[in-house]
């Protein structure tokens, strides 16, 4: 989702660069520089440098001394690997979110559901990606498990990038339906249903990833 102007500069820089990577505006395997990213984001060198360090830790870029910053390549088989790791933590987060969801969280889930539905109607994959990230953040907040949330976040970013590259608008409706099922289960407080819905979404994505890996 677009970074808020009130967010710390480093967070704004991270979200801006993350979006460029996920949407392939920074091409997989391509090289860039810190200065180019400063100019592209319109943010200062220090927050951009901090964002680059975080992205490097998450495996989305590689800092190459005297050569620049390499954006991680996209290898189709890696999508399966990402989802194999992601599945377990997504089930944990969804189950916990259903158990501990608070009044303030419900509006976030409602907004994410509406945004997903609008993205399907408009065939807007970029809007869907923003809604997907907003939902991930809502689940992380409601689940009250920062350890699981920190593990899930980079996996979610990697997964979104693969999905954007290999699925796009063709998978919007099915993906939105699976996400909305998670939202409904969480907001109804049904922990078992939320866990099952999260597992179903991961199974759906993994089936797509396996097709891509097979070529």
Describe this structure in words.
- The chain is mainly α and 215 residues long.
- The protein has two domains: 9-71, Arc Repressor Mutant, subunit A (Orthogonal Bundle); 76-214, Up-down Bundle (Four Helix Bundle (Hemerythrin (Met), subunit A)).
- 74% of the residues lie in helices and 5% in strands.
- It has nine helices and three strands, in the order H-E-H-H-E-E-H-H-H-H-H-H.
- The protein has helices at 9-22, 34-41, 45-57, 76-100, 103-122, 125-143, 146-166, 172-187, 191-214; strands at residues 31-32, 61-64, 68-71.
- A three-stranded antiparallel sheet has the order 1-3-2.
- Helix 1 (9-22) crosses helix 3 and helix 5 (103-122) packs antiparallel against helix 8 (172-187).
- The longest helix has 25 residues, at 76-100.
- It is globular.
The name of the CATH superfamily of the largest domain reads GntR ligand-binding domain-like
Biggest β-sheet strands, sense, barrel: 3 strands, antiparallel
Strand content: under 5%
Q: Would you give the CATH topology of the largest domain?
A: Four Helix Bundle (Hemerythrin (Met), subunit A)
How many β-strand runs? 3
Gyration radius (Cα, Å) is: 17 Å
What is the assembly state of the chains in this entry? Answer: single chain
- Tell me the span between the first and last alpha carbons: 31 Å
- CATH C-level class of the largest domain is Mainly Alpha
Q: What's the helical proportion of residues?
A: over 70%
H/I helix tally? 9
Q: Mean pLDDT across all residues, rounded? A: 93
